[in-house]
Amino acid sequence: MADGYLEQHQRDYEARKEAWLRKKRHLPKLTFPNIQRPDDESL
């Protein structure tokens, strides 16, 4: 293998990871509705 092969792949991975983390930070947080349960579970 050529010299620097692993280093280049490591740099590519780090760049993809950074882009993914940047995108992830700007995604809206999912909110789930709060389901009200009856006090008596036998119902």
Short description:
The chain is mainly alpha-helical and 43 residues long. The chain is 49% helix and 0% strand.
Structure description:
The protein contains one helix and no strands. The N and C termini lie far apart (68 Å). The longest helix is centred in the middle third of the chain and has 21 residues. It is rod-shaped, with a radius of gyration of 23 Å. It is an all-alpha fold.
List descriptors.
1 helix; mainly alpha; 43 residues; single chain
Proportion of helical residues: 40-55%
What number is the mean pLDDT?
Answer: 85
Count the beta strands: 0
Q: Supply Rg.
A: 23 Å
Any low-confidence stretches, pLDDT <50, length ≥5?
Answer: none
- Helical region count? 1
Assign the structural class, choosing from mainly alpha, mainly beta, alpha/beta, alpha+beta, or little secondary structure. Answer: mainly alpha
The SSE string, one letter per element, is H
Tertiary shape = rod-shaped
- Straight-line distance between termini: 68 Å
Largest sheet: none
Strand portion: under 5%
